[in-house]
Every structure is written in structure tokens, then in C-alpha cells.
Amino acid sequence: MAASHRNISSAEIRAAVEHAYEKLRDTTGGKNADYIPYLANVDPKLFGISACLPDGNVISVGDADVTFGMESVSKVPTAILAMREYGALGVLDKVGADATGLPFNSIMALLLEKDRPSSPLVNAGAIAACSLVEPVGDADGKWKAIVDNITELTGTKPEVIQELYASESATDFNNRSIAWLLKDYGRIYDDPEMSLDLYTRQCSLGTTARDLAVMAATIANDGFNPVTDKQVFDPELAPKVTSMITTVGFYERTGDWLYKSGLPAKSGVGGGVLGVMPGMFGIAAFSPPLDEAGNSVKAQLALMQIMDELGLNIFAASRLCVCG
Ligand code: DON
Predict the structure, then answer these.
(1) CB of 85 within 8 A of CB of 133?
(2) CB within 8 A of 45, min separation 6: which ones?
(3) Hey, whose CA ends up nearest to atom 12 of ligand 1?
(4) Which of 168, 204, 252, 269 to mutate to test the pocket of ligand 1 (most atoms within 8 A of CB)?
(5) Residue among 36, 104, 130, 250 to mutate when testing ligand 1 (max atoms within 8 A of CB)
(6) What is the mean predicted confidence (pLDDT) over 198-221?
(7) pLDDT value at position 113?
(8) What does DSSP assign to residue 73?
């Protein structure tokens, strides 16, 4: 049976984004992250959505330009950076690309799979990915590489939210345990404390829904940033990072999320969610209150609503293209 073909216009995408915003703007539910003190005090009413199309057109509604903590979404660019430096197979070998089915900060996941931290998109693998970043042994050089890579992916140079960084550094005991367990297992490739600090700092970077939508669009466009018109990374790495986003983007809720939304997406406890529709668009939503797994309640609802209105699902057999 032939797959159905349908074109989708930027006007339809704009309408779907606006409808989701209007429908959900007064929706409540969830709770700001409180294990990182700074995040507990962010305005829970903030809500923004942004979509970036292959022609570089960015559609934004609500608080799409408000800065918030990138948190776990920062695992995505640094996974890409590690792949740019070590290749897709190098990262598979040194970190892994498996789902854990467990919470993002699970020590149990690491104990169960001590030979590999599983994926650069969970805390253990993300700290390992930071340890891989070149130049090994040089904290300043590594930090510059992390920030430069994000700047290329979003088109905007991110700044650390110093209050968030201080707040997170003062409370990151669980992540410190992970860093030292990685050391015990021979699965960290630079100094554990330095790797942990780089990870904490990248989580504390400020971002916006708009920036995340551009990053997502760069992944959806095989590494070509449609806003800056630059090829940021090798096209062959795009499906690799999208596969990681697909398998572990919502941690222990990833299967439920994919089943409901049909969209590979990655969340952060700052309230951001980045979604990748390969070949079509990048999308992001931001709303601070989270469910128990640490995923933004309203951002999930918004992205599901948009996918539903557009009739999109990455697992569906229809062939779609954005045109017009
Ligand atoms: O390491 C942490 O716990 C935070 N810096 C990031 C966690 C996070 O964003 C999980 N995502 N939903």
C-alpha cells in the first residue's frame, strides 16, 4: 500500500502553534523543580512556543524569548559535540546510546550497566560526554568548545545564569556520586570534578524557546542551521542524535511520550522541551511546572496538541514536506 503524500504549509504550522498557545495558556498543573533552589522561584506562568522551519522562518508565541535554564536540554548539543570530535561510533563505544528506563539522575542505572553509562542524554552519560570534549585536561578550552558548539547550533551565544550555576553547584551531590562512580568504572575520560563542573555549568546556561527551536531545526535539517545558513555538523550525525532523543528524551516516561505524541523530544527541568521532526521542522516549548519525572507539563501538552493538529507522527507512514 502506498504511503499518502501531503504538503504542509508554514501557515498551517503557525496556526497550530497559535492554537496550542491559546488553548493552553491558562492551563495549570505540575510543579517547578525544587531540588535546584533557583528553579523553584521561576515564574510558573511563563509559557512560550517556537517553531523553526527549513527556510529559517521562526514562528514564536508567548514567552518564546524569555531566558530560562537549559538544564538537561544541554545534553543534546554536547552529545553532538562529542560525536563531532569522536564520531558516532566513538560515542557509542565510550558512552553508549541505550535507553535506561530510569530517572535522569539514576545511580541504579549506572550500577546496572557499569560498563557503559548508557546515553549522553542521561546525567551519567552527559558527565562522561563533558569529559570527552577536547581539549582533554583544559577546562577553559573545553568550556569554550561547549559554548561555541551551542552558539553554532542556535545562532545565539548563551550566557551562564550565575545564580542558577551557584544554586546547582551547591546541591549537586547526586551528580558528584555519579562522576566518581564513572571514575571507578573507567568510564570518565577527564578529571571527574572538572567534568562535573562543566556539566553543571552547561545545565546553567540560559536559553529561550526560540534558540531551542533553531537548535532542533538544525538537527532536523541534517546539521544545517537554517537561520545562520551554516552546516554545523556532519549530516550523518543527525539521525544518531535524533535516535538518542527518541530513546531517552523523557527518561522513564519516554515510551509514554512517544506513544502519545509521535515526536522525538528532549526535556529539561528548567521547563524547556525541544522537539525534532526530521526534514520538517524544529520546535520548542517552555513552561516551568514539571511532572514527577521532571518533564514540563504544559510544554508536553503544547507539542502534543501541535502534532495532533498537523496530523504528524514520526512513526506514521505518510510522507510530508513543508512548502509554501
Ligand atoms: O543534573 C541535573 O539534575 C540538572 N542539572 C538537569 C536535570 C534535568 O534537566 C533533567 N530533565 N528533565
Answers:
(1) yes
(2) none
(3) 268
(4) 269
(5) 104
(6) 98
(7) 81
(8) G
Asked whether 63 lines ligand 1 (CB < 6 A), one says no
Given a contact cutoff of 8 angstroms between Cβ atoms, the answer to whether 138 and 96 are in contact is: no
Judge whether 201 and 190 are in contact, CB under 8 Å: no
Query: What is each CA distance from 181 to 103, 107, 120, 123, in whole angstroms?
Result: 17, 9, 16, 12
**The residue to which cell 577553559 is assigned:** 140
**What is the amino acid identity at position 211?**
D
Distance of CA 158 to the CA centre of its chain: 15
In 3D, which of 191, 176, 78, 205 has the Cα closest to residue 131?
A: 191
Mean pLDDT, range 105-112, rounded to an integer: 89
Cα 91 from chain centre: 17
Residue nearest to atom 4 of ligand 1 (CA): 71
296 lines ligand 1 (CB under 6 A): no
Residues 59 and 108: beta-carbon distance below 8 Å: no
Provide the pLDDT confidence category of residue 317 given band limits of 50, 70 and 90: confident
Residue 38, φ and ψ in degrees, nearest 5: -55, -40
- From CA 277, how far away is CA 25, in angstroms rounded? 24
